[in-house]
């Protein structure tokens, strides 16, 4: 099993890492330099890539080594995947040799059992790397290989510079890699490398779409403990957050920003569910609020220009010109999107996601737990879920009293209560019969969607007010738009009243 973390670096950063004083006492031997040429093989239709496999043959001096890596999983930049490595006689894979070292009943073995797979393999791309290797041994016995790579990836006429740092655990606890990565990031500001060499090579052949990653269903069982259920829920939220990182950084699509923001909200809602049994570090909560704020600003302006303002000026007089205001709003949205991408692609975010993952992977909430809280975390989650849904239902009923007539700030608090209730319901959905939740979920979803739409209009009003205060050309158009949006919200009064009446007749699932 291979465990490694990759960090993106420049040439200067590679030199800085190489000379870090903190690494000197950990060196087992003098650093060595290798020149590695790796050729990646696949079928013409990239069947290995489709199955999440990467097959390469690496030339090291006069010898050749073939390596097959599975897709595995990635958490906070740590790759955990199966790796099968054997010597070969030439710069070409030997499928027969691979078949002998792979578990017979695995998906990989079934793929390699195809009679023509060996002859169908052709070179797809190469990596040419100058690698400096530092073998580190820590006082507790953990061993890590720190590789500084400087090279290029090439496929036909396409190429990409390759400069990165690999931290591979050779022996010891996986937490060692997180510790070391944080030490390096704090000494030399860098970013997590979100793609492996193989993924970057395939990206030259078939560019990725960086599609948004939505929340996947949480699979809980009634016999799970509260703690086990919490671990499952947090893992689900982190997968959604990290699944949208590349989309936020590289895609122009607004959806990855929205889904990453939702992932953070779901995570914070999950943490709120188990408080005070599990206490999340204040320092990490501050950092979550920071990145959520960056994503939130980008999302708010995106919604304004693509949704809230849509149709606003359709009935305006023909002499009315709103283009100046719309142009300023679009440029502001673009700036906030750029800031959100830069935030996700910076060292501060890299440290945050590593720290949160470490906290989760190491179950750090157990430190200092008293017996009463330990017992509470050992309860069946089915009991906890019923109590949690009842409490969140109660809060929504309290905050939503006279909901259609509430002022925007108070209604916003009710909207947050509805959102938290819906997240909890989705977390615990598999603990209930579908028919038990069907009507409750549908009614709550309709109510929350209406409150969300109203909140978008309230946010739009605030943004337009700010726009008018800083851009004289936007004053008249912003005032017109604010009036139009206020009338739309007023027209929704009857619908909100009906939805709230329907929800008040329901009880929380038991």
Protein architecture, described:
It is built from 19 helices and eleven strands. Helices cover about 55% and strands about 20% of the residues. Strand 5 (about 75) and strand 6 (about 80) form a beta hairpin. The longest helix is centred in the C-terminal third of the chain and has 37 residues, at about 435-470. The radius of gyration is 27 Å and the shape is globular. Helix 8 (about 225-245) packs antiparallel against helix 10 (about 255-275), helix 10 (about 255-275) crosses helix 16 (about 410-425) and helix 11 (about 280-310) crosses helix 13. It has two domains: about 1-205, Hypothetical Protein Pfu-838710-001 (Beta Barrel), CATH 2.40.320; about 225-505, CHAD domain (Alpha solenoid). Strands 1, 2, 3, 4, 5, 6, 7, 8, 9, 10 and 11 form an eleven-stranded antiparallel sheet that branches. By secondary structure, the chain is of the alpha+beta class. The protein has helices spanning about 10-20, 45-50, 95-100, 105-110, 115-120, 175-185, 195-205, 225-245, 245-250, 255-275, 280-310, 325-345, 345-360, 370-375, 380-400, 410-425, 435-470, 475-490, 495-505, and strands at about 1-10, 30-40, 55-60, 65-70, 75, 80, 85-90, 120-135, 145-155, 160-170, 190.
